């Protein structure tokens, strides 16, 4: 076994449950069977390494809940060195550096390198996204500048561009760097030959480039090119994206495939790399041709038709080439809508499960010929498991004792649409209090176990805690989320175009209220974060008669946004009114139920002003509310202590205003 410790926490002990280790950021070495990942234990983040023949062990010794994120892990091809970033915000790596610990001196975003034979990490520069060259050099990004470091020398600036830089990678010979240069309303594929006086742009246009990749021999470059649909929408038939291949020496490019009109005419990718070039010169990419996100392949020279490699009524979350070079690995919810598994499929054959024992499976990584993944299940938060050989965990025996097994349930909204949810049955006899939980995103999906995302892993732990305290919890995967196909994700009238996803929220509340004898209809609450905070506020504003109270984490409260100038004046007036009607602010006069508002004031996802604005309006109307603010904290809190404080406050608030409520509405 590769584990060195085992941990268990009782579901009733919220502090212990939230302190359980959570693994993330799994990467593998190209030529060695060694993996590296981050473990977060009660806010203390450290890097671990391990592999099929290597006992898992930590290689850093950070000791405090300081709010310093660790991300952008990269192993050298031989697995002997590790580069990573400490500090900053991985989601907004080019932005201002967060300071959730309220340090008197602002933190830095440090690129570090560590010899895995021993020693301590050392800083090689300020920035993010380090990548190894075949000869051991490291390139990294700081704002709009590419830097290059090599052993024995200080990092030096080698290229600067307008806009931001992403998807940085070396050519197979290490002489060129390929990247995306994003300029806000368009993005280019760019090539830079190290030492050259200029950057070359490949097929620049009035569109966005994404996921550029070299051919195995480095002589060509492939990339996805797409544009956004017009603001007024369309009838769903136009084609908005294509795949181009360019000569790396001349930059000459041509379109080798274009999405036909119809389903899949808009580009939609997975959460990781979306374009692969195989050894036999095929390009693999995601496409929603049949209304579900699947993997297709085309010949890199553009001959022949696109061939579907995965098929069925499920969605591919991530995919990559198998180490054998002949098969595809993908994560998808095949036959289990609320559960993700790792699958392998060879051309022309049916998919096969790669593992049998690792529960919910996400974010696979390859090291040499070994495959590992992030695994979770009903009582275990994210850990690293081997998906080749004997399929065992690098950190087993991790359990939330007493957890209930969430059940997948479906019911109908008032417009006939199917609503998907997971039900956590509360302990004790009925009628019990109940809660509706609403995830954020909205492009997310909650599962029947711990979520691989740290943010939603914590929410799952809190929902389990609520169930142990006697609440029945219904976690709703409302329309506009992922996992249930294109028609579900792009449902009519969602968000600022009418908030049709709220139909699923109110249906969930009514579904609970209709469970006579099990649920007390006067004690139903609601909570959620981000887009879930928005829907929580909308529920309280529109239906305080059903929802007794709610907790709103960093939610959106007014949906008013600047409108594109492509809309006519009449269209702008209509769209503006629809935005208002889709907002909690559009129904403030019927808001009566108490709410707890929680927000970090350095939120880069949902502007902090949304919460003070709501508090001001509630105060003016005499609506009871409580508030909890974390100075200098981000959207997904970087400090464990702030998660603890917010979840303790959430449990206390809902106990007082839902569980202990005695007066019927």
Describe the structure in brief.
It is built from eight helices and 41 strands. With 665 residues, it is mainly beta.
Give descriptors for this structure:
hydrolase; Rossmann fold; globular; eight-stranded mixed β-sheet; four-stranded antiparallel β-sheet; 8 helices; 14% helix; WD40; Neuraminidase; AB_hydrolase_fold; serine-type endopeptidase activity; mainly beta; 665 residues; protease
List the helices and strands and how they pair.
Elements: E1 7-10, H1 14-18, E2 22-28, E3 35-41, E4 44-51, E5 54-58, E6 70-75, E7 81-86, E8 110-115, E9 122-126, E10 128-132, E11 138-142, E12 145-149, E13 156-160, E14 164-170, E15 176-182, E16 187-193, E17 200-202, E18 208-214, E19 220-226, E20 241-247, E21 253-258, E22 276-277, E23 282-287, E24 294-299, E25 307-308, E26 316-321, E27 327-332, E28 341-346, E29 352-353, E30 360-367, E31 370-376, E32 383-386, E33 398-401, E34 407-412, E35 418-424, E36 432-438, H2 454-468, E37 472-477, H3 486-489, H4 502-513, E38 519-529, H5 531-542, E39 549-553, H6 569-581, E40 595-600, H7 610-621, E41 625-630, H8 640-659
Parallel strand pairs: 1-33, 36-37, 36-38, 38-39, 39-40, 40-41
Antiparallel strand pairs: 2-3, 3-4, 4-5, 6-7, 7-8, 8-9, 10-11, 11-12, 12-13, 14-15, 15-16, 16-17, 18-19, 19-20, 20-21, 22-23, 23-24, 24-25, 26-27, 27-28, 28-29, 30-31, 31-32, 34-35, 35-37
């Amino acid at each position: 076994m590769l584990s060195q410790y085992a941990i268990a926490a009782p579901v009733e002990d919220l502090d212990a449950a939230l302190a359980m280790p959570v693994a993330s950021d799994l990467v593998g070495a190209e030529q060695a069977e060694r993996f590296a990942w981050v473990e977060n234990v009660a806010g203390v983040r450290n890097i671990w390494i391990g592999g099929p023949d290597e006992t898992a062990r930590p290689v850093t010794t950070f000791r405090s809940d300081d709010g310093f994120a660790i991300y952008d892990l990269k192993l050298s091809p031989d697995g002997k060195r590790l580069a990573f970033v400490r500090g900053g915000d991985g989601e907004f790596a080019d932005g201002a550096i967060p300071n959730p610990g309220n340090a008197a001196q602002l933190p830095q975003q440090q690129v570090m390198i560590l010899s895995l034979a021993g020693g301590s990490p050392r800083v090689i520069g300020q920035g993010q996204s380090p990548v190894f060259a075949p000869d051991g050099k490291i390139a990294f990004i700081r704002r709009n500048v590419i830097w290059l470091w090599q052993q024995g020398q200080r990092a030096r600036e080698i290229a600067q561009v307008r806009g931001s830089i992403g998807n940085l990678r070396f050519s197979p010979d290490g002489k060129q760097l390929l990247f995306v240069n994003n300029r806000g309303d368009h993005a280019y594929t760019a090539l830079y030959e190290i030492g050259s006086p200029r950057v070359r742009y490949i097929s620049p246009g009035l569109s966005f480039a994404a996921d550029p990749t070299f051919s195995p021999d480095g002589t060509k470059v492939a990339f996805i090119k797409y544009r956004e649909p017009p603001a007024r929408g369309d009838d769903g038939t136009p084609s908005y994206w294509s795949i181009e291949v360019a000569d790396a020496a001349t930059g000459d490019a041509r379109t080798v495939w274009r999405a036909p009109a119809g389903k899949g005419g808009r580009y939609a990718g997975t959460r990781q790399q979306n374009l692969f070039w195989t050894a036999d010169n095929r390009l693999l990419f995601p496409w929603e041709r049949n209304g579900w996100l699947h993997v297709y392949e085309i010949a890199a020279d553009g001959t022949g038709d696109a061939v579907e490699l995965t098929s069925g009524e499920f969605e591919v979350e991530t995919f990559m080439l198998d180490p054998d070079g002949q098969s595809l690995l993908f994560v998808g919810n095949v036959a289990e809508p609320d559960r993700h598994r790792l699958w392998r499929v060879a051309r022309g054959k049916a998919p096969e499960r790669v593992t049998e024992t690792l529960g919910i499976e996400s974010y696979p990584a390859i090291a040499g010929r070994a495959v590992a993944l992030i695994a979770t299940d009903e009582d275990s938060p994210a850990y690293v498991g081997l998906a080749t050989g004997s399929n065992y965990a690098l950190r087993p025996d991790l359990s939330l004792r007493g957890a209930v097994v969430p059940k997948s349930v479906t019911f109908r909204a008032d417009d006939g649409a199917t609503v998907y949810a997971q039900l956590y049955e509360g302990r004790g006899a009925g009628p019990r209090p109940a809660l509706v939980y609403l995830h954020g995103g909205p492009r997310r999906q909650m599962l029947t176990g711990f979520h691989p995302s740290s943010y939603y892993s914590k929410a799952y732990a809190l929902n389990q805690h609520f169930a142990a305290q006697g609440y029945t919890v219904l976690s709703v995967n409302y329309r506009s989320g992922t996992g249930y196909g294109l028609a579900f994700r792009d449902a009519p009238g969602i968000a600022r175009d009418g908030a049709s996803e709220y139909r699923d929220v109110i249906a969930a509340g009514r579904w609970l209220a209709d469970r006579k004898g099990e649920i007390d209809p006067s004690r139903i609450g609601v909570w959620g974060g981000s887009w879930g905070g928005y829907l929580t506020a909308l529920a309280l504003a529109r239906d305080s008669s059903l929802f007794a109270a709610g907790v709103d984490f960093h939610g959106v409260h007014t949906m008013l946004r600047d409108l594109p100038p492509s809309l006519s004046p009449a269209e702008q007036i209509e769209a503006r009114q629809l935005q208002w009607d889709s907002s909690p602010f559009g129904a403030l006069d019927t808001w009566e139920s108490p709410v707890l508002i929680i927000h970090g004031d350095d939120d880069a996802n949902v502007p902090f002003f949304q919460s003070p604005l709501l508090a001001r309006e509630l105060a003016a109307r005499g609506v009871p509310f409580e508030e909890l603010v974390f100075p200098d904290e981000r959207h997904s809190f970087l400090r464990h202590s702030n998660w603890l404080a917010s979840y303790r406050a959430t449990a206390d608030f809902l106990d007082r205003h839902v569980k202990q409520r005695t007066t019927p509405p």
